[in-house]
Amino acid sequence: MSIARRQQAPIAVDRSASNGQRTVVRWHPIHDWSEEQVWKRITETGVRYHWAYDAGMERLSCSLCVLSSGKDLVCAARLRRPLAVEYAGAETEIGHQFQDKRSMAEVLAEADRLNAAEGELRWERGDALRRHVGEAAAAAYLALAP
What we know:
The protein is mainly alpha-helical and about 150 residues long. It contains eight helices and two strands, in the order αββααααααα.
């Protein structure tokens, strides 16, 4: 669980979205779940999850999100190199790094290094499940998935 999520209450009034006419309540039903619990629930219910998790992403938001970890940025750059190149160009044009501690040029260099060492990023449906809950659970899920 992320630090930001840990600091949130499982259920709370959202004062910024509430007003005199309405009260908005934010509820995070799986607030206390571990990552493994989430993936186990996915296998139990058969709910579809995004393919980018199979490709190695740990967190999804924008494809190249300024809030992403370095690992996720490199993975996204490997998956969407043309977009990462555009971001690096914009970074150069405005004279500001993508993140305080890393530039998109550095992300691209690491993505290129990994592609050279390992080849293009390859993944199969169910890889995220295999990583989180094992081969048997992934196989059972995939047998039921459309």
